[in-house]
Amino acid sequence: MSAATIHSGLRHSSLLRIGTNVLSLCLIFGLSIVFWVVWTAPDLTPFLPLVLVGAVGLVILFQYPLMNLCLVLSSFVLIAGFEEGFQVTEILYGLYYLGFLGHWYFTRIVLYREAVFRRPEERTLVIFLVLVSLSFPLTILFDGSFSGFVSEWLSISFLGLYFPIREAIERNRQGLVAVLGAILLVGMFVLIRNVLNFQDVISSAEYAYEVARGRAVTNESLLIVPAIMCLVFMIFQTRWIPGLAFFALFLAFFAGVLLTQSRGYWLAFLMASLVILLIVPIRQKLILTISSIVTIVGIVVIGMAVFGDVILLLVYGVAERFLSIMTASTSDISLVNRFTEAMGVWEYVRLNPILGYGMGVEYRVHDIIYDVTVVKTFIHNGYIALWYKFGIWGTSMMFFFLGSVLRRAFLVFRSKDLESIVRLGGLVVVASFAAFLISALTSNPVYINDAMFIISVLAGIGGGCWSLKLMRDARPSGSRR
């Protein structure tokens, strides 16, 4: 018997022993919960069979990695709102999400012994996540709150989705389509919910200005990325029916972005469009230019169908807000207040630029809207927030990781040997990252769950598309076609 066979047998028995112990612990933990529920809350006992059925369903689901990943991504809609306090759906999603990540990393690293962290930016991301998770002493040192630390850590932890998404795109022919489809589903849910909320605003409005200034300012980042995605696939589509389908979806998502009345995200979308216009071929430049004109007409027509004569007030409100972009930095007190906030936090950064202050740590700043000094943890400027929380070390690692993903996604799009959907996936990442470079100035993407979620998904798409390019380049030249 060879040494390799003996080693393989020992490894198999070791994995079997570990698996048995883990399953035993899970059984003991599950039975403990059942007995605890029966003892403390007998009224909930009838629901235990449903819980057991759900647990069995999850066990089966975890045997299908791509389906499981898509469900994790799509189920984000359960926490896409901004209700006060912790909701039951948020707790359930959090348990499922953390269970998914824990299972994925445990099986790949401990059981399968795979080389998960292969590239420099990926190792940098892992080091960043580990250091962030171990940064609680900073929170204690600067008198931060534990709840604030946990809340901000959960947002940062979405970056952990990078590796499962990259693997899904690497190993499944439909992996990229499935991930992009999950983004569309989440965006569609947000769009429908925002439109319904906006209709409530209109129906309850008593004056014309309430309609003109009405807005559905929720989850802008979950709308702008699907809008960019549909725009990219539309201008590269060669068949009429899919092209019209993508155009219709683009109109819907773009209208959703307009309804947010968020000038920061309007400028972000404009930035993404300019990047696309700059790097696509001549034919797509022409299609994009024509589509811009058709989009304006299409949105007015759809608005007339959905909102009736009220669309005139909406158009007036959007036009007035858009024209105020040039003067907003000096005339809009809300935007000026955010700039004042950024300058106030920058003074803290200058005092401690290396280590940072950690998560959940408060700062004091003068609020010019209410003319009072406020104490809070959230910082609207994403760049300064990152530096304030994690110092130069965290800021540098985050920029290196995202910058590397952006560069590789651009190279994927420029590659001529890849499938069309892979190249377009790279372009979606490039354009979306360009958009967030603008919106991050006034809307912090790092500590807002929906923005951090979609950025992490985009990073995973970029990493997966780059892996497909590397695998394509590694094939013999004669077998690439």
How would you describe this protein?
With 481 residues, the protein is mostly helical. The chain folds into 2 domains: 3-119, no CATH class; 137-337 and 376-479, no CATH class. It has 20 helices and 2 strands. It has a two-stranded antiparallel sheet with strand order 1-2. The longest helix is centred in the N-terminal third of the chain and has 38 residues, at 3-40. The protein starts with a helix and ends in a 7-residue tail after the last helix.
Over all CA atoms, what is the radius of gyration? 25 Å
Measured by DSSP, the beta-strand proportion falls in under 5%
Structural class: mainly alpha
Helical run tally: 20
Main pleated sheet: 2 strands, antiparallel
Mean pLDDT: 84
Q: Percentage of helical residues? A: over 70%
C-alpha geometry = globular
Q: Give the termini distance in whole angstroms.
A: 44 Å
DSSP summary, beta strand count: 2
Q: How is the largest sheet built, in terms of strand order?
A: 1-2
What is the chain-wise order of helices and strands?
HHHHHHHHHHHHHHHHHEEHHH
Low-confidence stretches: 207-212
Domains, number: 2
In a nutshell, what does this entry contain?
By secondary structure, the chain is mainly alpha-helical. It has 20 helices and two strands.
Outline the secondary-structure elements.
Layout: H1 3-40, H2 48-61, H3 65-74, H4 88-111, H5 120-133, H6 136-141, H7 146-156, H8 162-171, H9 175-204, H10 208-212, H11 221-235, H12 240-259, H13 263-279, H14 282-307, H15 310-323, H16 325-331, H17 333-351, E1 363-367, E2 372-376, H18 382-414, H19 420-439, H20 449-474
Antiparallel strand pairs: 1-2
Helix pairs in contact: 3-9, 5-18, 8-20, 9-11, 9-12, 11-12, 11-13, 11-19, 12-14, 13-19, 16-17, 17-18, 18-19, 18-20, 19-20
